Amino acid sequence: MNPQDTFADVQQSFQRCLTRKEFLKRFYDIFMASHPDVPKLFAKTDFDTQIRLLRHGLSASIAFAGGTRVGAHVLERIGDTHGRGKMNIDPKLYPYWMDSLVRTVEETDPRYTPALGARWREALGIAISYIRGSR
Question: How many domains does the chain have?
Fold first, then answer.
């Protein structure tokens, strides 16, 4: 990881995606269809709240990957809530989450390129590694 890399390109892509009202809802449509275990995890979910949490978590993830330590606190909370003692999310589902998110970005961001998709994966991979380490 380059300490000078702020992932500004990913942040800008995220902002473009957020201008599309359906972006975060579309992510959940794609994610739910990605693996048979995923819908069970959201059986009793208030999606208005969940979408707000996702937006906040993505923002923190990108900031953290870009070197902003402020995101670390949010990621630690995510690691705690998704860990064994609470929601017990199987780590094998993280690649499905990542693939679903990048696919949603590809559908939503008019400036999407495969290189930008790789940058999203890089940034989110940093955040996911941190989350998994905080469990």
Answer: 1
